[in-house]
Amino acid sequence: MAASPYIASTSAGESDDRLSRLPDWREIVAILMERAWLGVLAAAAVFLFFTFQARRQTPYYRSTATLLVETQIPKLLNYQDVMSFNLRSLEYFNTHLNALHSRTMIERALAQSGLARNPAFTPGAETPEARIEAARRLVQITPIEKSRMINIVVEHPDPAMASDFANALAQAYIEQELDNRMNSSLEAIEWLRQRSEEYRAKLEEGLLELQAYREQTGSVSLEEDQNIVIAKLKALNAELTSAQAERIEAETLWQSVQAQREQGVPPPQLAPLLNDGGVQSALDQWQTQQREVARLRRRYLERHPELQQAVELEQAYRARFDDAVADAMLTLEARYELLADQERSLQAALKAQEQEAFDLDRKLVRYNELKRNVEADQGIHQAVLARMKEASLSESQPTEIIRLVEEARPAKTPFRPNLRQAMLRGSVLGLALGIAAIWLFYYTDHRFRRNEEIERMFGLTVMATIPLIAERSLQRRGRITHFQPSGEVAESFRTLRASLTNREEVRSGAALMVTSAGPGEGKSLVASNLAISLAQDGRRTLLIGTDLRRPVLDRMFDMPESQTGLAEVLANERGWTEALYRPDVPRLDILPSGRIPSNPSERLGRREFADLLREARERYDHVVVDAPPLLGLSDSLVLLPQMDAVLFVVRYGVTHGLMARHAMTRIETSGTPCLGCIMNGVNFKAMANYYYYRRYGGYAYAPPEASSESAAAE
Hints:
alpha/beta, Rossmann fold, disordered C terminus
């Protein structure tokens, strides 16, 4: 419902928030408790149905035999089996599952166990095909999770027959697996024998052809010669590589010395490059003598005999150094030329050896081809002979890939029907269906029972919750706040009074209209008790009965038959102040409906009524109007434009949501603001309502006598 200016104190955000709220857990509990009888009835019906069905079924017993699929074939000897499987693959494991449930295995198990001749095992099956199909329906093949085991499960009314058939099926499959392996071994041995004869003849033919080629080429020891040629070739190649390295080193050194000599580099600087001991020794003597000459010149003159002798010795050392350098360069050049000649000779020898190797390779091509054929035939022949011997051993020593881990035993208790499990299922499903029935009934029943339902539909606040009044007398119920001022009902009207007087539009003596969607929802009761509560608060209050079709106020307040009312005032027979009735409630005046007119809508729409309301607003603090229902009559529609505010009364478990929505639409159309709703007639003693409507806590009201005794005791 969109935000409307005709709903008091409700903004657009608040309205949208209220309408979007879902029921909280307290409301859900209240809904379940309110219709618990329906849930219990549905749950009991489902529970009894499951229990009855379980008791009337034929009991079936379950027996289980367990097989183990080996992950590897046990090896007693060091040879490979004839039949090779990938035992760890999922496809191999699933193959066993499907083979166990095949028609062939069922038929074989029936024959070995003797159950094929027992009509009690498959009653009603006359032909062999029918017995096989009936037996297959009794068998379930299931793998055990995270293992290599397979369960063979048989269900039958006879526990002994179930265990016998499960064991027979397991044993029949193990025997069939062994037979298949032995037959495969025999077939493999025969095939290997034939291949052995073929490769033996082929090997003899290859040996003869190889010998003829040796005689034809005259090469008796080709393999030894081939090794010598290759060894020589490798040795020459290594020597050539070493010679090339030495020649490159000598050539580089010689070219470097020549280049520096041509550039005019002094001989002393060439000495380190020559790497010659004589050159280095001569250089050291010359340099030592130079230092000696320099020392003597600092001490003597040029003509001194000792200095002249030292100079001559220096010149002699220099000449010796020059001769040593010249000899070292000649030696370096000679070594370079010698290494170059050696490299050229090794290259020629290597080329000749390569040619010899090429000639030998041409002879070895055909020889190696013949030799490879002979060796291949010889290897295949030996492998076939060895495999044939292994197959013979595997035939005599068969191994089990499938073996029985646990035999099936007759069950002591039936597997199905499981009475306890059926009762548990019935309880769970019955509980679920019971809750579903409660919610289905709740969603199909559009009558209001909780405040949140009103708030979600209209976006209005429920201003008060009026308890169900147990009094049978109309006078007692209409004036319950006067007769029981300390009771729970009176407190709910005080709550309503406080909520209204806190509003500014109600404090100014506004005309407050109390109405409902239809008759019998308690609008007159709410209007009368609200007026009494306002008067008890010291406020001058006027209660006007505008229901000119079914007036109630005169009976509530036990007015005399001669009492005039609103009908006479609107007919201009009396003034409205003269028609007032003053009950025994201080500060409360009542203008009853009076006699029933023939045209109530026209009279309520007259100017006299508007003048009456204007004067009443001036003389009284509050004006409470007991109006007719909104639906089915036009009286309230005539009154709405003349009212300042509206209180909408909803009867617990009576007011229909669709009717209330139509009534609220009329209030909005009139433009009169609706202050809120009042939930009337709530039975707080009901278990669902007690905890729901008292969730915020509250006082427990004692009867007046008990209160008086407590006060006297104090």
